[in-house]
Design a protein that fits this description.
With 250 residues, the chain is α/β, with parallel strands linked by helices. It is 45% helix and 15% strand. The chain has helices at 16-29, 44-51, 77-82, 93-99, 103-115, 128-132, 136-151, 177-192, 196-201, 212-219, 236-248; strands at residues 5-9, 35-38, 56-60, 87-90, 119-124, 160-163, 203-207, 226-229. It has an 8-stranded parallel beta barrel with strand order 1-2-3-4-5-6-7-8, surrounded by 5 helices. The radius of gyration is 17 Å and the shape is globular. 44% of the residues are buried. It binds 1,3-dihydroxyacetonephosphate (13P). 1,3-dihydroxyacetonephosphate is lined by residues 9, 92, 164, 169-170, 207-210, 228-232.
């Protein structure tokens, strides 16, 4: 049986003082529950210092697809490893829509992350216009295919997929458990057509306005294996409740 795994994506939020308070609250509350926080680059050292030895691991929200060199402003996978990162988000919809990341660039970041031993959290998901025009599965397929073609389906054994419908991110509008389950099942069946064992073991997180109040019914779905949490990951009580709801459905 797959484990459920909840990851917080802090996005561009936080300060040393705010993070200290948040981490101090979640660390003792999540003893024995695996969870992840993906923090802004400058706070990786803080996450490492506070969370080392706990059941909470940490990661970044982006990385360069290049190992080193004249790439001003970029951060490599090996730099993330220096700060104890285990995970890195790739292809978040905000990276795709605001910074123009293409499917091909996302795939090369995925490859760079795995080459360094990091576990990529690969985000996929459709916009509202795409859902309304009935191309949700085609969009998610295209995003997955770019990675499968670049890296091979077997590499999904060392990756997490996060289904994040763009229309549900930060909008307060969550996909219903049935809507989310349907796309998760589609993703798993698509991978299963290539490799049933990989598909069965693949952790597929749901992201998009997950809160303490809706976590239980989402986490109860058979193909929802955890969550990627934005706004609610910044509120200790919310994040703790979501992680506990996921653990309950393992
Ligand atoms: P919200 O939980 O704020 O909707 O954000 C979801 C998300 O983008 C996580 O990566």
């Amino acid at each position: 049986m797959r484990k459920k795994l909840v990851a917080g994506n802090w996005k561009m939020h936080g300060s040393l003082a705010e993070n200290a308070a948040l981490l101090a609250a979640i660390k003792p509350a999540l003893v024995g529950i695996d969870a992840v926080v993906c923090v802004p680059f400058p706070y990786l050292a803080q996450a490492q210092a506070v969370l080392s030895g706990s059941s909470i691991t940490w990661g970044a929200q982006n990385l360069s697809d290049q190992p080193k060199g004249a790439y001003t402003g970029e951060t490599s996978a090996s730099m993330l490893l220096d700060f104890g990162c285990r995970y890195v988000i790739v292809g978040h919809s905000e990276r795709r829509s605001l910074y123009g990341e293409t499917d091909a660039q996302v795939a090369s970041k995925y490859v760079a992350a795995q080459a360094a031993g990091l576990t990529p959290i690969l985000c996929v998901g459709e916009t509202l216009a795409e859902r309304e025009s009935g191309v949700t599965e085609a969009v998610v397929s295209r995003q997955l295919d770019a990675v499968i073609q670049a890296a091979g389906v077997a590499t999904l054994a060392q990756a997490i997929v996060a289904y994040e419908p763009v229309w549900a991110i930060g909008t307060g509008k969550t996909a219903s458990p049935e809507q989310a389950q349907a796309v998760h099942a589609f993703i798993r069946s698509k991978i299963a057509a290539l490799d049933a064992t990989i598909a069965n073991g693949l952790v597929i997180q749901y992201g998009g306005s997950v809160k303490a109040s809706n976590a239980a019914e989402l986490m109860a779905q058979p193909d929802i294996d955890g969550g990627l949490i934005g706004g609610a990951s910044l509120v200790a009580d919310e994040f703790i409740a979501i992680c506990r709801a996921a653990a309950k459905h393992e």
